[in-house]
Specification:
With about 400 residues, the chain is mainly beta. It has helices at about 5, 365-380, and strands at about 25-30, 40-50, 55-60, 70-75, 80-90, 95-100, 100-105, 110-120, 125-130, 135-140, 145-150, 155-160, 165-170, 175-180, 180-185, 190, 195, 205-210, 215-220, 225-230, 235-240, 245, 250-255, 260-265, 265-270, 275, 280-285, 285-295, 305-310, 315, 325, 330-335, 340-345, 355, 360, 385-390, 395-400, 400-405. It is about 5% helix and about 50% strand.
C-alpha cells in the first residue's frame, strides 16, 4: 500500500516548456570495402539514439546515383550522449551496417569521418547474454553467429564442436561457444566472464538513487519501480512515452503528479562522493528529489587515458606519457611511458577504488623516463577514488587530492 503522501499526489506538476531545444550537427560518410557499385534503388539510413533507446535524430537518403563514400549530416539534441548506427539498404533490406558509434554529451558539431560498413544478412533469432559487466546480443543466421556489444559487431563462422555450438573468427581472437543457457566468449583475445543467457522477462535495470530521504528508481523491461522514503513507499508503473527535454529526457506520470528526468551530466553522490554518468531528478507535489544514475564504471571502461600530470607536475615527454585503460572485466593496463603494465582493478559500492599488484615489463629506458615510471607506479598504487572534471579529464585521487590527471 502506498502511504497517503503518494496516494494524494494527483495535482499536475508544473513543467516549464522546453521551447526551442539546442541542436548539434552530426556528419560523416558511409563506406564499404567491396568493389561494387550501389544499385539505384539503394538508401542510406543513419540514426542516433539515447537513454532507453530514445530517438535523438535520423536521416534517410535515396541513392540517386550516389556511390560511396556516401556523405550525410543531420541534427540531434545537444547535451546528451548518443549512439549512432548506419545502414545501407537495397530494396528496403539492410545490405551493409556499421558498428555502433558513441558520441559524448556536448553541444559542438561532430564529424565522424568515414564510417566502415560491413555486409549484413538478416538474423534468424536473437538472444541476450550477460558476461559479468558486459551484455551481448547474439543472433544466428545460416552458419554464422552475430555477436554485438555496445561498441562493436562480430561476425563469427560456425566450427566443428562435439559439445555445444561453436562459432569462431579466422584469427581465433573472437569465439562464441554456446552450451545450453551458458556460453564461453572471447572477444579481441580477451576471455569474458562466464556468460549466462538472460531470460526475456529479466532485463538489466538502469538505476538511479538519491539521499535524504533515501530513494531509488529502477527502469527495466518497460516498467519503472520507484521506492521513496527509504523503501516505505513504492510505485511499480509501466513506462510512459519518453519526452526529450533540453539536455536530457523526461517521464511524466500525470495520474500521480510525478515526473522523472534524466540528464547526461556527471553527478556526484552527496554522501559518498561516488561519480555517476547521469543526473536524475524525481519531482513530486512536495518538491524535487535529486540524485545520480547509471553505471559509474562506464565512465572509465574501454577508454584510453593519456596522463598529462603526476602530483601536479607535467609528464617529462608528451610523446611517452603514461597510458591508462580499464577493461569491462575489471583489469587495468597501459604504459608507464617506458614499460607495459597490467593488473586487477575494482570499485566498491561507495566508489572507492582498488588496484592490485601490477605486472610490469622490464625494458630499459633513459633516466628521466625510468624515474617517471617509478613515480607513476607509486602514485597509481596510492589512488583511492576518481572524478571527472568539467573538461572531461580523468582525475585519480588520493586523500581527496588529485594525484594523476589524464585526458582522452
Amino acid at each position: 500500500m502506498l502511504r497517503s503522501s503518494l496516494i494524494l499526489l494527483f495535482a499536475t506538476v508544473a513543467a516549464t516548456g522546453a521551447g526551442a531545444q539546442e541542436q548539434r550537427k552530426v556528419s560523416g560518410s558511409a563506406v564499404y570495402r567491396e568493389r561494387m557499385a550501389l544499385p539505384p534503388n539503394s538508401s542510406l539510413s543513419v540514426e542516433a539514439t539515447g537513454f532507453q533507446g530514445a530517438d535523438l535524430g535520423a536521416v534517410d537518403l535515396d541513392a540517386n546515383d550516389q556511390q560511396v563514400p556516401w556523405p550525410f549530416s543531420f541534427d540531434i539534441l545537444a547535451g546528451v550522449e548518443a549512439m549512432v548506427r548506419a545502414a545501407i539498404r537495397v530494396d528496403g533490406l539492410s545490405r551493409w551496417v556499421s558498428d555502433p558509434i558513441t558520441i559524448d554529451a556536448g553541444a559542438e558539431s561532430v564529424d565522424l569521418g568515414k564510417i566502415m560498413m560491413v555486409g549484413f544478412e538478416p538474423i534468424g533469432f536473437e538472444s541476450k547474454y550477460t558476461c559479468g559487466d558486459i551484455d551481448l546480443d547474439v543472433g544466428f543466421r545460416d552458419d554464422e553467429a552475430v555477436v554485438q556489444t555496445d561498441e562493436r559487431i562480430y561476425i563469427l563462422k560456425e566450427t566443428i564442436s562435439a559439445d555445444g555450438a561453436k562459432f569462431e573468427a579466422e584469427d581465433g581472437l573472437n569465439i562464441f561457444w554456446s552450451k545450453g543457457d551458458r556460453a564461453m566468449v572471447t572477444l579481441d583475445g580477451n576471455d569474458l566472464a562466464d556468460c549466462v543467457i538472460i531470460p526475456e522477462e529479466a532485463q538489466t535495470a538502469w538505476i538511479a538513487q538519491g539521499n535524504e530521504p533515501g530513494w531509488t528508481v529502477a527502469i527495466a523491461d518497460s516498467r519503472i519501480l520507484m521506492s521513496l522514503n527509504y523503501g516505505e513507499e513504492r510505485l511499480d508503473l509501466r513506462l510512459p512515452e519518453l519526452t526529450l527535454i533540453d539536455g536530457g529526457y523526461r517521464y511524466r506520470f500525470a495520474q500521480f503528479g510525478l515526473e522523472f528526468s534524466v540528464m547526461d551530466k556527471i553527478c556526484r553522490d552527496d554522501m559518498t562522493g561516488r561519480v555517476f554518468p547521469q543526473t536524475a531528478e524525481l519531482t513530486t507535489a512536495d518538491g524535487t528529489l535529486k540524485g545520480c544514475g547509471g553505471n559509474s564504471m562506464s565512465l572509465l571502461e574501454e577508454k584510453q587515458w593519456t596522463v598529462s600530470s603526476i602530483n601536479g607536475e607535467p609528464v617529462v615527454e608528451a610523446d611517452n606519457a603514461p597510458l591508462i585503460s580499464i577493461t569491462d572485466d575489471m583489469q587495468i593496463y597501459g604504459s608507464t611511458g617506458c614499460n607495459r603494465y597490467t593488473g586487477p582493478f575494482w570499485m566498491q559500492g561507495d566508489g572507492a577504488l582498488g588496484i592490485g599488484t601490477l605486472a610490469v615489463t622490464q625494458m630499459a629506458c633513459d633516466t628521466a623516463l625510468t624515474e617517471q615510471e617509478q613515480l607513476f607506479l607509486d602514485t597509481l598504487a596510492s589512488v583511492q577514488r576518481f572524478d571527472i572534471d568539467d573538461a572531461g579529464s580523468l582525475l585519480l585521487l588520493s586523500d581527496d587530492t588529485p594525484v594523476i590527471r589524464a585526458e582522452r
